[in-house]
Amino acid sequence: QLWTIDEKKWKPGRVEHTVGWPLDRHTYGGSFLYHLNEGEPLVALGFVVSLDYQNPYLNPFREFQRWKHHPSVQPTLEGGTRIAYGARALNEGGFQSIPKLTFPGGLLIGCSPGLMNVPKIKGTHTAMKSGMLASEAIFSQLTNENLQSKTIGLDVQEYEENLKNSWVWKELYAVRNIRPSCHSILGVYGGMIYTGIFYWLLRGKEPWTLKHPGPDFAQLKPAKDCTPIEYPKPDGKISFDLLSSVALSGTNHEHDQPAHLTLKDDSIPVSRNLAVFDGPEQRFCPAGVYEYIPLETGEGSRLQINAQNCVHCKTCDIKDPSQNINWVVPEGGGGPAYNGM
User: Fold this and answer.
1) Where is the ETF-QO/FixC ubiquinone-binding domain (predicted)?
2) I want to staple 95 with a disulfide (CB 3.0 to 4.6 A). Which of 37, 176, 236, 285 is the partner?
């Protein structure tokens, strides 16, 4: 969210990060609150919830609302005005999840291959550097008079080699084990202990590389094995309901375009997602796109997809436990119109 706050509380340049609360120790996540230095009392704030969480009752949006009531956060926002809202999935697999970066006719650069420094929630610098290295490698190929390409599209493999020899690779390698270390029996606490020992003391030079347990959607447990989470009602001052927040995202899709959110099997949402996981898509979506509504017969329910609300965060594509949602690119110009974010 983007807020305007009381100028007396505004401290341009101030950066606040938290980890944990209100999440439990088995759910990785944290927050950011930045006092922007742009001539007016603006703060940007957000809450990051890792999508490998296990409890299908968890609602990332509502965790964010609850976090804002923490005594270290609420005073900053009191008397302020929420002016913008948005959501986005971050590629936080880190070093272990970087794919092959080159293919005939193209390169993966920026945020797309997942070059984010996960513990710092910071990736703009690595994204920009990858673009610089890509342009240098492409220019070198285009100006090579002896160029012999094996394919119709130019395959610039030097880009990946140059990236691996740059400070980007060294930075991501140094923090490679911080995120996977949270999968021990101690959860996030274990990750903190590991980070203190092996990153702050050894600077990530340990001779091993930990692995992720698998895809995020596969980590979800059946609803019968989990405890429902009771969330407080929004007060309309610090915390808000979902739909009024989505209205601030400026999202819009032309009503006559083909739906960009479809199902591979229409029966799966009710027969599996709702039956086994209590319909997690109605909670993990930060825009209220997925909604279970009663059938007109009065027996059972069906999944309604409000594609108009979609803010293109890609969470459903990642977290759907059945991998039954087909997310395709919508018509050009559709989607959120973030102002100032």
Assistant:
1) 2-90
2) 176
